[in-house]
Prior knowledge:
By secondary structure, this protein is mainly α. It has helices at 2-6, 31-53, 62-79, 84-89, 91-107, 132-154, 157-162, 172-186, 188-214, 218-279; strands at 20-24, 27-30, 118-119, 122-123. The chain has one domain (27-264). Helix 3 (62-79) crosses helix 5, helix 5 packs antiparallel against helix 10 (218-279) and helix 9 (188-214) runs antiparallel to helix 10.
Amino acid sequence: MIARFGAVAEGPTVHVAPGTVFEIGGVIITNSILYGWITITFMVLFFAWVARKVTIKPRGGVVQFVEAGVEFISNLVVNSFDDKSKGRKYVPFFVTLFFFLLINNWLGLLPGVGEAFRVGETPLLRAFTADLNGTLAAGIVTMIFVYVASIRETGGVLPYLRHFFIGSPWNPLYFVIGILEILTDLTRVLSLSLRLFLNVTIGEIVIAVFSYLGSIAAPVTALPFTMLEMFVGALQAYIFTVLSLMYLSIAANHGSHTAEHADTEEAELTKDTETETMRLRPGEA
C-alpha cells in the first residue's frame, strides 16, 4: 500500500545527452556549449575582479578562497618537479585547468540549470562537464599539452619514448612492457574524460531523483546531495588536475635524471682520464 501510495505515472526527467539549442552558420550549438561559454565569460570577469582585489595583506571572503586555491595548486605543481624552475613554468596552465573544471562543476548545480528552462523539449542550459563531448575536449587539450611539454622537457621524441622502456632494450620482456606502457598512456584521454563525466552526470541524476521524490519539499530533500556534489565537483577537478600533472612530471623528472646520469658519467670519465694522465711521467704524458 505504501508503494502504491507513493507511485506516480512518470518519473524524473533526466537528459544525459546534450541537446541542440540553435545553430550558427550550420554549426550546432548545444546547451552544454552555451553554458560553457557563459561559464567562461563569468570566469574572466570574476578573476579580473579578484586580481584587482588582491593585496599584500590577506583579505577575507571569496578573494581569500581564490588565493588559497591558487597557492595550493601552485605548490602542488612546483613540488612535483625535481627542478623547481621547470614546475613554475607550468603553474598558470594547471591553476587555470583546476579552476575551469571546478567552476564548471559548481555552476552546473545552480537552480535553473537543467530542466527548469527549455527550448522546445531541450533544456536550455546544461553543465559543460556533464557532457561527454566537453570532458573529452578537456582531456584531449590537456593531454596534447602534456605530450608537447613532456617531449620538450625530455629533449625530443625519442628520449620521451625511451622513458617507457626501462631496462635492457634487447630484453624482449622489457620491450613488450614498454609497448604496453605506450598503449596505456594513449588511453589516458579516455580515463580522464570518462571519470569526470560519469561523476558529474551521476550526481545530477541523484539530485534529480531526490528532487522528484521530495515534490514540494524538493529543496530540502535535494540539499544534502547538492552539498555532496559540491564536494565531489571539487574533488574531481583536483583529481583531473593532479593526474595530468603527474603524467607530465614523471616524464620531465625522468628526462632530468637521464641528463644528470649522463653528466655524472661524463664527469667521472673525465676525472679518471685526468688522474691517469697525472700518474704518467712527464715524458710519457
